[in-house]
């Protein structure tokens, strides 16, 4: 049976508050790319920027000088040898260090836990990718009463142009926020890298946008970044 795959716009348009998200996809010109985005409902969540460091990392930091918050401020993307690592929290640095020590991606993603922020218990989402393959890791709270972490590892092989895989921290209706779906296969309309950043940004709820970036394995220092106007 043929399964219909929705476009990126359809998937995100049906999610009133996606939170943070990781995307691995191939644009129409055949370029394989990663992307990361942030949205925020609170003033503190929106008062953040995504910027490149001198060392070539992408860092989520406060837009004004303030005390570090380990749940809101973190390394979002790092190149670790041949591996590009990106995600929604401090686990990105942990996974990159594990890869540097010689672990394979599946083991580098093991043992992570969801964020200690009840009642939502935000999943920790991490992607490890080279130019052809990607491993998605999600550390999630149980849908029931169990406190033990559910850990999902998804390996994504060769993508055809226009194909992508997306994970978001949240799935939200107008009235409630819940843990996001395990993952979604999506169609990408963008013909090239610049079009992908435009497509992703336009799909996010305008009043919740914080930042988004598109990058390639081995090319993190040249990441394309878009920021929302700070309040």
From TrEMBL:
One of its GO terms (molecular function) is IMP cyclohydrolase activity. One of its GO terms (biological process) is IMP biosynthetic process. InterPro entries: IMP_cyclohydrolase-like, IMP_cyclohydrolase-like_sf. This is Inosine monophosphate cyclohydrolase-like domain-containing protein. Residues 17-210 form the Inosine monophosphate cyclohydrolase-like domain. It comes from Actinorhabdospora filicis. It comes from the Bacteria.
